[in-house]
Design brief:
This protein has eight helices and 14 strands. It has about 260 residues and is α/β, with parallel strands linked by helices. It has a single domain, classed as Carbamate kinase. The protein has an eight-stranded mixed β-sheet, sandwiched between helices. Helix 2 packs across helix 3 and helix 5 runs parallel beside helix 7. It starts with a strand and ends in a 7-residue tail after the last strand. Bound molecules: adenosine-5'-diphosphate and N-acetyl-L-glutamyl 5-phosphate (X2W). The site of adenosine-5'-diphosphate (ADP) has 17 residues, from helix 7. It is an enzyme of class 2 (transferase).
Length: about 260
């Protein structure tokens, strides 16, 4: 499960999300959590006098800004997530994509600076943590084999983790799912419909990155991916595969 958007500003959502994760664990499901924090990172960069812009939903991240980027995402927010988990009775272990050889990053484009695309490497650490009844809480900071740190979009980080675990993927944000031009929830999207909605400007900004990450996960895993709200996560408990948001299926997906 991946949480992003205003999650860090909403204490009620945090409590109910982690309570739901605890219930899922008690029901015998293993859960790994990936988190974003773009809004909090933006606020910290601004407070420190850095200008920060996004290109097609990805934050341009000069290497000299990486201490702040990593400080917020892998530091403050990752540890806050571990504390929230503890309040729900879960023992979380906060890690990054760079830990345990989970992933190796590749620079996306020189003009974006240290923005990385994560290639999955080893699920060993995740399996060991979950086997020990610990909940992995993963931030979207990665590295390459030369030791350069990268800022990874958290939806892409979640896709990487789901493919390592062959796990069902839930991308949970502050919207109920993908919305149409009348702001109505779209129950199901496939490749051609996504392309159409992106071309017509109905899907924009961070949602473009999110649907593309969901498409990639659906293709790799051969199963549907959910885009929904962390507010609805408790509904998932009774029926894990119930769709409360938008279900994404991509070519190669076999039902
Ligand atoms: N068609 C759409 N449906 C829903 N949200 C959309 C759409 N197009 C753009 N958005 C925007 O995308 C945002 C979610 O993407 P993003 O902010 O990157 O989420 P997160 O931080 O959870 O990854 C929504 O809050 C909304 O402002
Ligand atoms: C490269 C890139 O764009 N990285 C993201 C990482 C955080 C993120 O994705 O947070 P949300 O899920 O809350 O949006 C960023 O800097 O905002």
């Amino acid at each position: 499960m991946k949480v992003g958007g205003d999650f860090f500003e909403d204490e009620q959502a945090q409590a109910s999300f982690f309570a739901s994760v605890a219930t899922l664990k008690n029901q015998g499901h293993n859960v790994a959590i990936v988190h974003g924090g773009g809004a909090q990172l933006q606020a910290q960069l601004t407070a420190l006098g850095f200008k920060s812009e996004k290109h097609e939903g990805l934050r341009i991240s000069p290497d000299e800004q990486m201490p702040v980027v990593a400080g917020v995402l892998a530091g403050t927010l990752n540890k806050k997530m571990v504390c929230m988990a503890a309040q729900a009775g879960l023992t979380g272990v906060g890690i990054s994509l760079a830990d345990g050889n989970l992933a190796v990053c590749e620079e996306v484009a020189p003009m974006l600076g240290a923005v990385g695309y994560p290639h999955p490497r080893s699920a060993k650490l995740l399996h060991q943590l979950m086997h020990a009844n610990l909940t992995p809480i993963i931030c979207s900071i990665g590295s390459d084999l030369n030791g350069r740190l990268y800022n990874v979009n958290a939806d892409q980080a979640a896709t990487c983790i789901s493919s390592l675990l062959y796990a069902d993927l839930y991308l949970l944000s502050d919207v109920s799912g993908v919305l149409d031009e009348k702001k109505q929830l779209i129950a199901h999207l496939d490749d051609s419909k996504i392309q159409q909605l992106v071309n017509s400007g109905v899907i924009t900004d961070g949602m473009i990155v999110k649907v593309k990450a969901a498409q990639e996960a659906s293709r790799t895993l051969g199963k549907a991916v959910q885009i929904g709200s962390w507010n609805d996560v408790s509904i998932l408990i009774d029926e894990l595969h119930r769709n409360t948001g938008t279900t994404i299926t991509s070519s190669g997906f076999l039902s």
